[in-house]
Design a protein that fits this description.
single chain; alpha+beta; two-stranded antiparallel sheet; 2 strands; SAM-dependent methyltransferase
Length: 80
């Protein structure tokens, strides 16, 4: 797409999928660091994390959560 905008550009695109398995408590601790929790305030954040914990405990009864990610990278260079 970028090369179509400027013929002097060359582009390369890569996509890499990866996942990790971690304890539910670690997943929730990571989730609680996201910036949207800062604007919710402590009580609303706690309630949201509690709701998420209950949902995930039903989905992952063994207590281990698989997080799956896809990294997408596009590099554009000017020819010459």
């Amino acid at each position: 797409m970028l090369a179509a905008l400027d013929p002097a550009l060359t582009t390369a695109y890569r996509e890499v999928g990866w996942s990790r398995v971690l304890p539910l408590a670690a997943h929730l601790a990571n989730l609680a660091t996201h910036s949207f929790f800062a604007v919710l305030g402590p009580e609303a954040s706690r309630a949201l994390i509690d709701d998420e914990r209950a949902l995930l405990e039903r989905e992952f009864p063994e207590g281990q959560v698989r997080e799956s990610y896809t990294v997408r990278l596009t590099v554009a260079r000017v020819r010459g």
